[in-house]
Amino acid sequence: PPKGTVLRDGTKVVVHLMEWTNAKDYPKGKILHILGMAGDKDVDVMSTIYKFKLPTSFPSAVIAESEAIPVEIPASEIKRRLDLRKTVTFTIDPEDAKDHDDAISIEEIKEGYRLGVHIADVSHYVTVGSKLDKEARQRTASAYLVDRVLPMLPERLSNDLCSLKEKVDRLTMSVMVDLDKSGNVIRYKIHESIIRSHAKLSYEQVQTYLDTGEG
């Protein structure tokens, strides 16, 4: 810390342990970061990040690779996929959801219903052995903290290309399940697909509609 910095009792800091050869002596360390006073929300979150060594940023090469991915979906890619853009599809998530990576659709068929479950096709953008792939493997998963998300993939993917936004074409993997009127599975098939979510809904909105018929 800067010279003259006064640390009050209860201040949380990040320390690099320099020497501790004798358990009877005090360990010696160098203060790397002053986080703030224990109990403060931001300080506790930052303590968790440092404790578990969670990455807070992406290497520049990984960012560059994500930014190089074109937004427009090639016509050749659309042609080879099951086109579900005209099928009424929607996302349902909590009001405060940080991402929207799955959607559903439901249609009536002769035997009962056809349920579609659609997941963002991350594998189209994150190819095996790429810088994005290697970084994602190191991170394993996104970390959801009290006030922030440390995503597994850069924002270009996690909040844009792989987010099933309302009224935007998105590449997905879909499982189409035919159910009888009692909800038993008759058959199912998995497809590489393209969807266009018709609505971004919350659980609260849907529950209100089911309870009142309004909304």
Molecular structure report:
By secondary structure, this protein is an alpha+beta fold. It has helices spanning 41-51, 60-67, 75-79, 122-125, 131-139, 155-161, 203-212, and strands at 11-19, 28-37, 82-83, 89-93, 102-108, 112-120, 143-144, 149-150, 169-180, 185-196, 199-202. β7 and β8 (149-150) form a beta hairpin. 15% of the residues are buried.
Write the layout of secondary structure elements.
Blueprint: E1 11-19, E2 28-37, H1 41-51, H2 60-67, H3 75-79, E3 82-83, E4 89-93, E5 102-108, E6 112-120, H4 122-125, H5 131-139, E7 143-144, E8 149-150, H6 155-161, E9 169-180, E10 185-196, E11 199-202, H7 203-212
Parallel strand pairs: 3-10, 4-11
Antiparallel strand pairs: 1-2, 4-5, 5-6, 6-9, 7-8, 9-10
Gyration radius, in Å: 24 Å
- Read across the widest sheet, the strand sequence of neighbours is 3-10-9-6-5-4-11
End-to-end span in angstroms? 55 Å
Shape: elongated
Give me the strand/helix succession.
EEHHHEEEEHHEEHEEEH
Number of strands: 11
Brief write-up:
This protein is α+β, with helices and mostly antiparallel strands. Helix content is 25%, strand content 34%. The protein has helices spanning 41-51, 60-67, 75-79, 122-125, 131-139, 155-161, 203-212; strands spanning 11-19, 28-37, 82-83, 89-93, 102-108, 112-120, 143-144, 149-150, 169-180, 185-196, 199-202.
